[in-house]
Amino acid sequence: MIRSEEVYKIGRLGKPHGVKGEISFMFSDDVFDRVDADYLVLLVDGILVPFFIEEYRFRSNETALMKFCDIDSQDAARELTGCDVYFPRQLSDADEEGVSWAEMVGYQLVDGRTGRAAGTIASVDDSTLNMLFELTDGKLIPASEELITDVDTDKRQITIDLPEGILDL
Fold first, then answer.
1. What pLDDT, on a 0 to 100 scale, did the predictor assign at position 98?
2. Tell me: the pLDDT tens digits for 73-103?
């Protein structure tokens, strides 16, 4: 059984495309292409399920048409519409220098000045000019690369020099 801490969200499936089982895939991280992955993990009825990739083609920098093995009709593809898509952390090409923003979800955020745990990253908000970490308790923390001092992929921990008093807001 695949556990949620073993994967990270990279996108969501949209509508079927054509009649042969292709489906649109809106992604925030193209790691599946960079590492030539054999499968992606879909959240189907609350269960993380691996789906093997037959083929895909890019439509834009954020959208691909995905064809999974054994999904051979428009109706079968329609059943996957709206599923969140995850990528296995063990297959990621990330290292301390190259962790994607999407992969940081689930990491522990530590204040570099005090050594105090600030919380766990629930999501990364990149909808504004200033990127933000949203913690599980709802706090918003600036996610500026200039503030991040260390990324430990083994411990799944990010050390960040937070502006004084920001955790008290």
1. 66
2. 999 999 999 999 999 988 887 665 567 788 8
Residue 152 is encoded by which pair of tokens?
Answer: 């430990």
**95 — phi, psi (to 5°)?**
-140, -175
**What sign has the CA pseudo-torsion 31, 33, 37, 38?**
positive
**Is the separation of the CB atoms in 117 and 108 below 8 Å?**
yes
The residue behind tokens 């499968």 is: 39
Kindly report the length of the chain: 169
Bridge partners (DSSP) of residue 120 are: 108
Among candidate residues 27, 22, 2, the one with its CA nearest the CA of residue 85? 27
3-state secondary structure of 140: strand
CB 151 within 8 A of CB 143: no
Structure tokens at 68: 């999974």
The pTM assigned to this predicted structure is 0.73
Structure-derived torsion over alpha carbons of residues 13, 15, 19, 25, reported in degrees to the nearest 10: -30
Q: Using alpha carbons, select from 7, 134, 1, 5 the residue that is nearest to residue 83.
A: 7
Contacts of 168 (CB under 8 A, 6+ apart): none
Q: Please give the share of the chain, as a percent, with pLDDT higher than 70.
A: 95
